[in-house]
Amino acid sequence: MKDPFPLEPLPWLSKAVQPWADYLSLPSLPLHIHEVLIACLLYSVIYWPISPLLSNLLVGERYRSLPRKRRVNWDAHVVSFFQSTLINGLALWIMFVDEERREMDWQARIWGYTGAVGMIQALAAGYFLWDLVVTSLNMDVFGPGTLAHAVSALLVYSFGFRPFVNYYAPVFILWELSTPFLNIHWFFDKLGMTGTKPQLYNGLALLFTFFSCRLVYGTYQSVMVFKDIWAAMNTFPGLELLKGASNLPGSNIPLSDAMRFLTTSSTVPTWLAAAYLISNLTLNGLNFYWFVMMIRAVRKRFQPSRPVGGQEKQAQAVLHAADSAPSTASVRPRRRKA
């Protein structure tokens, strides 16, 4: 599927980034660098001035009375809500309509590329570029941990421009289906709606999407990507893929499209496989832990008042930290902490 982004690559920008792409072995980056920068600009405009204007209009004094640090955090949550909703919708759409992606075999799932999936990769990278800038400018709000996450997330998303496991980019983006509900939960707390029926219904939707998308679907897809990476480690694509005389085995994808960036040196080095698999395994383990703690935190809001113990405090904190670690093929967009 061709890149559906409404603007074509800018020749001068692609040319300017080409030397860096060659040096860093990111051959598809010049085709999507304009999307990375436009996405970063869009999120910046939403952060300011759109979020302050809308927040003043919709909640008025509640927003204006917030101290600077809380306003910065509020505006970051607005960006996170918009970004997670947008990229989830695009990921679902691409998974349904991108026939090239649907027909990929294991080699194409590792080294393959389609313009549509490249766009998803670029929009996610643009978010983390914005994240890096905002965090750097507000270290007193977000701290060094958030800065380290922004840097690592941007680096890991950049691996997708090798290209590497682009097939799985929209798959792991769907872990984010719970993030809009997580942001809404946060806003309910800040707007004095803790324990209300709307927060209850939203909490149930949050738990359902988190369980189904991360624990069930996410775990299954992690096993599938592990299998593909294991098959590709320190091996090279079959010669029939490099000759360009036939389509991918068992599929209808022309080499010139899905495997256009394939070369005789294409492989999955051990360091890349290890970094990917370790981060994915870590996040899968955290997902199960977070789910238990999120249940405790949601239940806490609808039980009679009682002294808050250590476990309850920890559970409440999870609702604001569960989305602060990596995911897409290894790292995912996430909203800010409270």
UniProtKB/TrEMBL annotation:
Domain of life of the organism encoding this protein: Eukaryota
PROSITE patterns in the record: TLC
GO cellular component: endoplasmic reticulum; membrane
Subcellular location: Membrane
Family annotation (InterPro entries): TLC-dom (IPR006634), TLCD (IPR050846)
Domain called TLC: residue spans: 69-303
Region listing for Disordered, in residue ranges: 306-338
Membrane-spanning parts: 36-58, 78-96, 108-129, 141-161, 167-188, 200-220, 271-292
Keywords for this protein: Membrane, Transmembrane, Transmembrane helix
Topology of this chain in the membrane: Multi-pass membrane protein
Pfam family for this entry, one: TRAM_LAG1_CLN8
GO biological process: lipid homeostasis
Protein name (Swiss-Prot/TrEMBL): TLC domain-containing protein
Native organism taxonomy: Eukaryota, Fungi, Dikarya, Ascomycota, Pezizomycotina
